[in-house]
């Protein structure tokens, strides 16, 4: 299994949004929601329109069984309102043409196709969550809060997960030469 990375560049995030929107509004919204709430793909895909209507997105995490609340800020609320206009509360947020919601595998292909188009590699469904974590950490520098958000056992796991540990190692080697 390959290790996926967060997207560390705002320009690449914008390029991904553009590439996904060209294909479909659903694919674009999958990316936008994923990088803005930091949920696992297994918790994102089965969401229904009604789940997005409150001030918080509340889910029972499949992996941990824990109940999590994700605040929906004004910018994300605007995206949600645009995407859900005219849709019934019981509809899946990410519907499949075959019925039900798209699969994890389909989400992977959607993200990978767009990534290839914009010149990114090491992208997968976890990239959404890792990108959220990476930028949250860069902005707030609060690994304890991020550790709690992700339900990780230690700060070192969180930093390694979002790629900060590798970034710091790389930085120490950038100008190291004997």
Describe this structure in words.
It is a single chain. The protein has nine helices and two strands. The chain has one domain (10-174): hpI Integrase, Chain A, CATH 1.10.443. It is mainly α. The longest helix is centred in the middle third of the chain and has 15 residues, at 104-118. It starts with 9 loop residues before the first helix and ends with a helix.
For this structure, what is the CATH homologous superfamily?
Intergrase catalytic core
Strand neighbour order, sheet with most strands: 1-2
Report the CATH C-level class. Mainly Alpha
Task: Please state the overall shape, judged from the principal axes of the Cα atoms.
Answer: globular
Helix proportion: 55-70%
Organism: Butyricicoccus pullicaecorum
Domain Tyr recombinase: 1-174
InterPro entries: DNA_brk_join_enz, Integrase-like_cat_sf, Integrase_catalytic, Tyrosine_recombinase_XerCD
Protein name: Site-specific integrase
Set out the fold topology.
Blueprint: H1 10-23, H2 25-37, H3 41-44, E1 56-60, E2 67-71, H4 74-84, H5 104-118, H6 126-140, H7 143-150, H8 155-161, H9 164-174
Antiparallel strand pairs: 1-2
Helix pairs in contact: 1-2, 1-5, 2-4, 2-6, 7-8
Short structural description:
InterPro entries: DNA_brk_join_enz, Integrase-like_cat_sf, Integrase_catalytic, Tyrosine_recombinase_XerCD. By secondary structure, the protein is mainly alpha-helical. It has helices spanning 10-23, 25-37, 41-44, 74-84, 104-118, 126-140, 143-150, 155-161, 164-174; strands at residues 56-60, 67-71.
């Amino acid at each position: 299994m390959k290790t996926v990375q967060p997207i560390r560049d705002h320009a690449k995030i914008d390029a991904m949004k553009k590439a996904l929107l060209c294909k479909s509004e659903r694919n674009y919204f999958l990316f936008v929601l994923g990088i803005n709430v930091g949920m696992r793909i297994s918790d994102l895909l089965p969401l229904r329109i009604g789940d997005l209507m409150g001030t918080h997105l509340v889910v029972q995490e499949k992996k941990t069984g824990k109940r999590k609340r994700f605040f929906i800020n004004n910018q994300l609320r605007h995206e949600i309102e645009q995407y859900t206009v005219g849709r019934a509360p019981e509809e899946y947020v990410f519907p499949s043409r075959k019925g039900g919601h798209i699969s994890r595998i389909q989400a992977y292909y959607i993200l990978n196709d767009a990534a290839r188009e914009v010149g990114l590699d090491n992208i997968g469904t976890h990239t959404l969550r890792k990108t959220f974590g990476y930028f949250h950490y860069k902005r707030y520098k609060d690994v304890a809060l991020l550790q709690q958000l992700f339900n990780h056992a230690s700060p070192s796991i969180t930093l390694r997960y979002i790629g900060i540990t590798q970034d710091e190692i790389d930085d120490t080697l950038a100008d190291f030469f004997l």
